[in-house]
Write a structure and sequence with these properties.
Number of strands: 55
Strand content: 25-35%
Oligomer: single chain
Radius of gyration: 30 Å
Length: about 950
Amino acid sequence: MTNTTFPTTQEGEWIWKKNFLSSTDRYMLAHKIFPLDAVATEANLWVSAHSVYQLYINGKLIGFGPGYYGKGVSFADLYDVSCYLQPGSNVIAAVIYHYSQPEEYETKPCGFWLQLEIDNKIKLCSDKSWLVQEGISYQNHRPRCTPDSYLCENVNMLLYPAGWTEELNESSLSHSEWENPTLTTPAWIFGASLEKSPYITNQCDLNGEFKPIFHGKIKAQDAYSFWTPGEKPCDLPGVYAACTYIHMKNPGQVSARFICDDNFRLYCNHNIAASTIENETNHIQVHEALLPMQKGWNCLQVIQDVRENSMGFAISFPGIKPESLKLYSKPDEKSTICWLISGPLKMPLADATPSINFQKLNCCSFAPAPEKVADPISWLMASALEEIDSPVPEALATGEFIMMKLDQLRIGFPELSFLGEEGDIVDIVIGNRLNEDGFPVISDCSRCTLTIILRAGANDYTKFIPCGCTYMQIIARKAKNKIKIQNCSFIETTRPQKSESQFSCSDETLNIIWEVGREVMRRGVNQTNRMIHCTPDSIYMLDAYGLASNMIYVFGDYHYSELLFRQFARAQFENGNIPALGATGDSHTQINHMSFFPLWLTYHYRTSGNEKLLYEMLPNLELAEQFFASLVDEKLGMIADVDKKFKKIVGEINDNIENLSNCSTDVNALYCRFLLSASEIYKITNYPDKAKLCMRTANNIIRKLHENCWIASEKVFCDSYSPDDQELCCNSFTNMLTLFSGVKPPEEYLDYLDYFFTDEPPFSLYEEQTESRYFNFLFAHTMFALCQKDWTLSYLKHYWADLVDYDAKAWRKSADDPNLAGITMSHGNMICPNIFLVREAAGIRSAEPGFSTVYFNPPISSLKWANLSLQTINGKILLKWQLEEDGSLDVTINANFPMKVLPELSGEIMGKTTFRISENITLLDPGTPHKE
């Protein structure tokens, strides 16, 4: 499958509807029935979409994609569907979602593209013969998942075609809602071209059972109100004004929580109380406001730039009971309890003032009611959970809920089935942990909710966009009688892995760290595979290197490492700059991350032996080298003021540094690391002159750093140097980077450890400077290279054990933060220590490319035994060692390919060691010279 080439003939057309072109948030359903005479021996299905698709064959969920997004070109995912097809009639169905920013312009066509090849012949492709339907069941006002990203799901089952993904009778679909595409674009048109997705397509499997853990009722706790757009005439995007009145018995400041996905201004008595314009933010996090209330009547005004299908806004008043505060349309307690709404207005939000006379405007009234809530999270934040101590029921009445839990954090699609009455409403809240109020959450700035408006009878629905899920709360917001839960399962989406390494040792904490790291990696590659156009996530190079290097040791997955590396090489600009990989196509400089380009390349070579890739990447390396050289200030002899040279720099590695102005020690140290690694590549590829030039340049930078940034009295490096600024600050991260990069001589590592660390937990004297995963990945790399095995294993164990979330099998953001690290390839979220458990705890690491020769150095002062099954590029290695009570060491090493083993053991230990080796193993004398 991975070697299948993209078809040279592309008969498939992009299909869409013309009336969708002006929309920024649009769903479409696509359906095609086709016959097969016999079971296909080979059936390759190529699929793409702009923005995303969810694919079904004969009613079974096959996949979600596209797996990769590129600016200016679309990528097609490849599925082997031979096992899903059947003799006779077959149906392919897809949900397609397009999301874009209003100001965004793309040459790529919107919509869906598909081509099915059976036994190397085109059997089916997307064209005008397909049936499509506007996804009006999805087109409801709803909240956004994260700032400026796609919207959550709100599905009206009254409008959702039942059984459409497996309907084999086309005549039943041919009523007014289904029609042929009104817009088709051939793949050869400019901007419509396709390429094969570089990623292996994820697979979807029913994997994970939701178990109820408790149930209860939702009780109103705080006064709460909201406005949901959509009621005519307020059903178009634009600037709207909302007004209501509150009567207060006493003057004073009243706390309020305001939630809005759009830009807005909130006024109280003509005083601005909250705004995204003045603060230049547009976050979905709660905007805390203090409302200056006067005795008597008070006026609240909201002016909001409403985007398509916006949730509107919600406001709650913590500590004020719902019955104690009412919002009136006029300053009169006999008036209607509602908001007055006017819009769209000619007035732009940026020029808005509260001097709006609603009596002179065409206004409509909006009376908040539970069934009109667009954002379930804002409603729940004003509510309280009341847990009921009784068996979990099978059906829910209005206001009741059930909390469900998976065995761990998984990525995929909840598959749900409810039995209810027409107009019943179910809210689904998904999260990776429970917050202090008992609700599932992902983080403070993200939501994952699903609202389903039921039809009478059975309602089957599978979530459209995959999500990370450990907890799921099912809430009956509205039930005429009771809503019965008939099914609650989970379809997990994963990247197929051919093999998996196994590790265990005498320290159970290290075993747990291995297990959690392995699951984090599974989710990490899953996230890379499902990067979608409508999210702002980016991939930073150090994150990619950290995950890819671990994937080699844990899954024997060299393809993933090479694939990601090639993506960065492909993204390289003409000036040599290699930006972060952005799902939205945006490109931003990642100056410090870029320094790891040659280090990653040498690491991949050492583990895979792929010399061809080294030569292939030489032009990229030379261009990157020239880019860094262009940043060097001729007078200072170092890289200086990089923050002034680029519009935006992303992915700062060291959070202890506020900016990269002046001559940053971090930037110049990592430049040295770049040069030293580049020199090694040039040596391997027989370019000695280039290797020497890199070494000379690195030595010049090292000399300048010592002249300008070395604080001799403290034996540390300061953060940066400026001729005009004599204030010297230093931090642990920066000084670790000088060791990591070869700026600080290796023999002086004790000076660094004595200044910043102790021998006992928590080890770090400045924990706020060493808490990031970036630091700990590079720190372990450095300390193990300096042969500090036992202390570093203790440090590694302490740091990573404190991050473990045992319920989710995931890392928390920090030891003191209950939020889980995001499932993103940034901020070190996917970095794991498993590579060090193989190399240092099991004690085996590659000495020559491709593991043809390995070092063996077990930590017998820290562990009693370790077992390892390691998949390499050439085959599998089996290792088992145990320290006996008499001090002797028993070692068993097997491999299914020829391999040499070089023990790194003292003469005394070697004399007490028994090696049991297979016929493929050659045991070398410990004195044999090798260079790692």
